[in-house]
Amino acid sequence: MKEFSTEIWSAQIPDDWEGEEDEEGVVLYRPEGAGELQITVTEKEEGLVDDEDLEYFAAELIEAGHQQKIVRVGELQGLLFEYREEDTWWREWYLAYDELFFYVTYDCDFDARHEEIQFVQDILKSISVH
Question: pTM of the predicted model, to two decimals?
Fold first, then answer.
């Protein structure tokens, strides 16, 4: 495992994974892998990110009838949605840590949906906010 770090957070990623950061967030992936893990973090101007905020950000998925799970992933907690859209499998997390909102997506080919999920879970559990 190796550390991937941003100004706000860091995570442990497998040695064969790579990460890229730009103004929109972070993309973590295995060059020959099945999918991409994208992480975007924003800070709430006043107060802590709460359940109402998470549901507001996830409103489109909720209105579309996608089932949500309440999850705790390491230091983060919030909502997880898993769904199929044509041949793509999506996992979307809407997570809170104090005043920070983490929007996390993982997408891959539907048939490959189980290949990297344990790596994705381990990466998310390892996130540490600075």
Answer: 0.95
